[in-house]
Amino acid sequence: MWPNQHYTAADSTLEGALSRLTGYIQEVPAQLSALPEETLLDMKPGKWSRKQLLGHLIDSALNNLKRFNEAQFGPEPYTFASYRQNELVVTNHYQNLPLDHLLTLWQALNRQIVHVISDLPEATRQRKVQVKGSDGPPRTLSWLIEDYVGHMEHHLQKLL
Questions:
Q1: Fold of domain 49-159
Q2: Residues 6+ apart with CB under 8 A from 133
Q3: What is the pLDDT of residues 106-147, one digit of tens each?
Q4: Distance (Å, rounded) from C-alpha 88 to C-alpha 78?
Q5: Rounded to two decimals, what is the model's pTM?
Q6: Is 93 left (phi over 0), alpha (psi -120 to 50) or beta?
């Protein structure tokens, strides 16, 4: 994740990100469920399968839900560590879980994210956040939320 790579579109807004996220929660399960199981399990060398990629998006939702909540309180900038993406995909055995299990978890986490961010006051949206050890400038909570949705969109292009 940032500072090396970020996914926020130049014209992105929190409201736009929230609207897109709400749409994905409704649309993605049907699109993924339409894919054959072989397609969901197919792995290329050095790449995740579609099931594993969905698992990565679950891990992202788990980590970011915590960030979106905790960034609202305490001193600024709220600092957070990156997480072990590859290790979590392996440890959680996403490849072996039924698709409906993965989709239910992904939807529930993202519904909670929508609930948490829907009514954030402007002052809270502007709270500063930063990755531990980053030499880049602090960003706003609003930027972090928009980046979360952009990161999801980046992976949905490969997933669907």
A1: Four Helix Bundle (Hemerythrin (Met), subunit A) (1.20.120)
A2: none
A3: 999 999 999 999 999 999 999 999 999 888 899 999 999 999
A4: 23
A5: 0.92
A6: left
